[in-house]
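Sequence design from tokenized structure. All designs in this work follow the same two-part layout: the structure record, then the generated sequence. An example of the structure record is given first.
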């Protein structure tokens, strides 16, 4: 949640030639929370501590460092993307990014690079379990440790396709070819825990705003039945309600109070309106890095229990929508670990590990929801809901 690195992020961005070059090199537009700008700020404020630092490890990679007893454990590609230091496509520490980040710091670029471990695949074996754990806890001496990754890369592992998480914030993880980026810089290019490329977009004002609208009409936080009935009375693509209680990250914009596109104030219209505008924002600002396909859109989160919300997701994305149970980072890490173990033990005569079949077995899927042609027609096309939404939303952002 770091937000005090604005000056450092801008310095790095300018140092490599601007926003476009920053995105092209790192896959992201120097988000404030990314590690490189945080390291730069620490170096500026506490140069003696920075100079005395031997190694910089991410928390996710510090864990395998402890498990192996080796501070030189590599940083994985997946979380390496979240540093503004790694070249996204070549998966190496980038000279231009390092130079811009280390400019003015003790020792310059060479010192910063010396503090960074090497880079490796998230599912690569980086060592064996340290003797401490074997002797104290009785682990098998053959236990191997993989590089691992962070929560977002690991959460993506059990799903090969596009994954939309409708939680307090909305997270849209879109599988890519590794070359497709977001030229606006709203989303971040990453690799998942088994090294597959994807784009990560997080909308701050997600289901928390849906809860707030229901609360406005006197419903308890988990009182969903009346809201579902209200949704059933409204034809998709009719109403727009805009509300951003918190500063938004996708697309980057300020907070503002509730705004209605019509004069009505009812649960049915406001609840439908806030759901459809929230989903429309994710869809529209993800379009630049999302391929047109009829492959299923995987959806997770509490909203998958609502047929009316899932109907609207299918219509806005115009593709089959497949609910999946909540898996999370721990399940994804476990799947990546199984794959790594299988890869380490396999030989040319062994049948290859089918990670999709395994993932389907451990992360249950529901029945697919097909887009309703009438809903698709209401949302898409010249002058239709999505176009109207974008025009109104972008005008609101100008006003605020």
């Amino acid at each position: 949640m770091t937000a005090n690195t604005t000056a450092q992020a801008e310095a790095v961005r300018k140092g490599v030639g601007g926003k476009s070059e920053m995105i092209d090199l790192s896959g992201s537009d120097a988000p404030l929370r990314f590690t490189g700008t945080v390291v730069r700020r620490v170096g500026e404020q506490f140069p003696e501590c920075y100079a005395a630092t031997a190694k910089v490890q991410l928390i996710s990679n510090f864990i395998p460092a402890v498990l192996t007893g080796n501070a030189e454990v590599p940083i994985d590609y997946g979380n390496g993307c979240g540093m503004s230091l790694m070249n996204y496509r070549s998966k190496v520490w980038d000279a231009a990014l390092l130079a811009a980040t280390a400019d003015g710091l003790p020792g310059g670029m060479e010192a910063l690079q010396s503090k960074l471990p090497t880079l490796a695949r998230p599912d690569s074996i980086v060592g064996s379990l340290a003797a401490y754990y074997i002797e104290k806890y009785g682990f098998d001496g053959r236990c191997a440790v993989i590089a691992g990754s962070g929560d977002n890369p690991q959460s993506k592992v059990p799903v090969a396709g596009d994954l939309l998480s409708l939680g307090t914030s909305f997270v849209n993880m879109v599988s890519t070819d590794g070359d497709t980026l977001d030229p606006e810089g709203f989303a971040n290019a990453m690799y998942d825990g088994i090294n597959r490329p994807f784009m990560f977009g997080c909308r701050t004002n997600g289901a928390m705003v849906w809860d707030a609208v229901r609360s406005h009409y006197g419903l308890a936080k988990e009182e969903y039945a009346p809201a579902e009935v209200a949704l059933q009375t409204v034809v998709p693509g009719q109403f727009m309600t805009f509300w951003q209680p918190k500063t938004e990250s996708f697309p980057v914009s300020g907070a503002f109070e509730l705004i209605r596109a019509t004069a009505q104030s009812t649960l049915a219209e406001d609840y439908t309106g806030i759901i459809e505008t929230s989903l429309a924002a994710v869809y529209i600002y993800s379009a630049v890095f999302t391929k047109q396909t009829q492959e299923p859109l995987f959806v997770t989160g509490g909203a998958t229990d609502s047929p009316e919300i899932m109907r609207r997701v299918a219509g806005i994305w115009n593709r089959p929508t497949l609910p999946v149970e909540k898996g999370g980072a721990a399940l994804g890490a476990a799947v990546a670990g199984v794959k790594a173990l299988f890869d380490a033990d396999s030989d040319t005569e062994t049948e290859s590990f089918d990670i999709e079949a395994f993932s389907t077995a451990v992360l249950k899927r529901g029945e697919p929801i097909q887009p309703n042609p009438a809903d698709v027609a209401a949302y898409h096309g010249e002058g239709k809901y999505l176009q109207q939404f974008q025009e109104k939303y972008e005008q609101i952002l100008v006003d605020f």
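The two ends are 23 Å apart (CA to CA). We note this feature because it recurs in several other targets discussed in the main text.
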